[in-house]
Amino acid sequence: MAVIREKPIWKFYINGGHETSTKSVATAREKSCIIDEPIARGGTDTGPMPVEYVFVGLLGCTHVISNKLAAANGVVFEDMKIDIDVTMDSHGTRLIKPIDIPFPEVILDIDVTYTGPREGAIAVTEKLKEHCAVSKMLRQSGTKVTEHWTLNGEKLASA
Q1: Global pTM?
Q2: CA pair distance 64, 30, nearest whole angstrom
């Protein structure tokens, strides 16, 4: 099996554009996705809204980085469920007034079934916020990101 040598700093490219006034199609690594608004906002509801994609990215980043951290700490995540509750201030997107923090609060409920040492699983919960790029971007933009972890049925204090 070939060894993948990842570069610490790298670039990637996304392209796309206008289909309608509310619908876009974007492509990354030859995979396309539709970005659209709900019918109530003039869209065709054929894809998630742009702001929802931010949190789809957070879910994916949380999942992938948690599994990398688990492996690095001698743990295997057998199952992982992530629910994300987002509070959005839509004053900016509704053109009412510019705002500094469009997402004041985000709460992740992360429920994991794992094998391996409990200390390793706890280490994942402590280190995730330092390694998930989407979480870091949100935190550094002023969003309060709270993680509620449940490990093998044990609810941990919020991180």
Answers
A1: 0.90
A2: 21
20: Cα separation from own chain's centroid: 27
What is the secondary structure of 62-131 as a DSSP string? Answer: HHHHHHHHHHHTT-EEEEEEEEEEEE--TTTTTTS---S-S--EEEEEEEEEEES-HHHHHHHHHHHHHH
Please state the domain extents for the chain.
13-47, 50-155
Residues 6 or more apart in contact with residue 24 via CB below 8 angstroms: 16, 17, 18, 34, 35, 36, 50
- Domain at 50-155, CATH from 3.40.50.10860, 3.30.1330.30, 3.30.300.20, 1.10.240.10: 3.30.300.20
Specify whether the CB–CB gap between 94 and 114 falls below 8 A.
no
DSSP annotation of 19? S
Q: How many CB atoms lie within 10 A of CB 84?
A: 16
Q: Tens-of-pLDDT digits for all 159 residues of the chain?
A: 566 677 788 888 899 999 998 999 999 999 999 999 999 999 999 999 999 999 999 999 999 999 999 999 999 999 999 999 999 999 998 899 999 999 999 999 999 999 999 999 999 999 999 999 999 999 999 999 999 999 999 999 765
